[in-house]
Amino acid sequence: MLGCEACGWLAPANIIFDLSKVTRALQEPASLVAKSERFKAVLRTGIDRWHLVQRWNADWSIAECAWRQDSRMEVQMPETAAVEWREWDDLWRSVAAEF
Questions:
Q1: C-alpha closest to that of 79 among 3, 12, 11, 22
Q2: Which contiguous run of DSSP H or E holds residue 52?
Q3: Contact (Cβ atoms closer than 8 angstroms) between residue 7 and residue 75
Q4: Segment holding 60, helix H or strand E
Q5: DSSP track, 27-42
Q6: String of b and e for 23-41 (b: at least 16 CB within 10 Å)?
Q7: pTM strictly above 0.90
Q8: What are the tens digits of pLDDT across the range 81-99?
Q9: What are the residue ranges spanned by the domains of the chain?
Q10: Domain 4-98 class?
């Protein structure tokens, strides 16, 4: 997307993300996720469960998916936004259920 700042993360498949915490981050109006223009992730959420998580402005969705390699997250912010990517790193750690 032109006119934005973006960052992506990869997490090994042994990290399991807490789907309820991810859902709360999507729903919370003041969260980092809510401030993004676009958010997309494929996350391992259980022993054999993976979810595609997306947010575009105020719309969001979570659906099971077939991906089984690693967890991937991508964030797009407005070009003029003052972004502290370390806060996003902290968010990923806070929604990880198991390392």
A1: 3
A2: strand 49-56
A3: yes
A4: strand 59-64
A5: H-TTSHHHH-SEEEEE
A6: eebbeeeeebbbebbebbb
A7: no
A8: 788 888 888 888 888 876 5
A9: 4-98
A10: alpha beta
